[in-house]
Amino acid sequence: MDRTPDTVAAVNWDELEREAVAAYESAASGDELEEVHVRYLGRKAALPQALRGVRDRESGMTLNAVRRRLEEAEEAARARLDGGTVAGDYDVTLPGDAPPRGHLHLITQIRREVEDVFLGLGYEVVDGREVETTHYNFDALNFPDWHPARSTGDSFFLDDTRVLRTETSPSQIRTMEERGGPPIYMITTGRVYRRENVDATHTQTFHQVEGLAVDEGITLADLKGTLLAFMRAIFGPERRVRFRTHYFPFTEPSIEPDVSCFLCDGVGCAVCKHSGWLEMGGSGMVDPALFEFVDPEKYDPEKVSGFAFGLGLERIALLRHGLPDIRLLWGNDLRVLGQFR
Ligand code: FA5
Q: Is 165 touching ligand 1 by the criterion CB < 6 Å?
């Protein structure tokens, strides 16, 4: 006995599908779409009716396939009319969640600020290299053989002749070699490496800014004036600078600049350990031995003089922002870093 209901045989399903798909495609509004839905997929429409009456597997498969294609056409029409609403789950026309926006790390900001200050003073910014030869890192900078920085206990060596630079000072030599002679007014910034015990003020990787001025008639007064201008630009116009004598193998005399404490203005507080002053780095007049070493013809020590300085960028960050521990800068804690936008 043929159990297929009349409706299955009576309808040309191919034609119905073509008609329905065309209707979905031309539906121009939500109301029209609803009408098309009622006409072809509504409870009383021919297809759902026929499906309810189907008894044999083959007709069921044919009609289900038609239904699936009509549902797809309806879905597509709805997406088109809703401007992208898919299955009613979400509306892509609504504003989304903005992805969190990053910003420059505090040390990068300070590096750029420092570069801006010196560009404003007529300096150029040059690149250095992080892997140095012992020649540039020690010999050319007048480091005596016995200096502890030459040992594997203090520095990271790649082999006998190559070392991760322990300071930015080798770029003084490289710049002087590259140039035909004075005048030189340059700074360089970048990472340096030391085998330190890590604590609140020391890490094994940190950043320095190195400055070098070589010209005729440069004096210690020029060094002092330059560092004063720099400290005031970074820490505020009221700052005073003082200098203490020190020793570096490549400067003679060597002096260490202190800046008056920006928090207490020299009165004494916890930040400056009640001294009123903050230590900033090293500096001095270029040792004539360096000129001899590079090229005494181009840099005649009788005529040419210069000054150099090297300051820690992390130190500037800690002091200026009252950060109690250098490790906060490199712990990747966004609660800390996010404060410095
Ligand atoms: C020098 O590195 C000399 N090259 C500076 C110099 C340049 C002197 C040119 C004369 C002429 P010093 O070792 O003091 O000097 O380091 C300079 C600064 O780097 C320090 O004041 C400090 O701010 C920073 N610094 C040194 N060691 C560390 C460390 N382990 N972690 C973070 N900052 C450091």
A: no
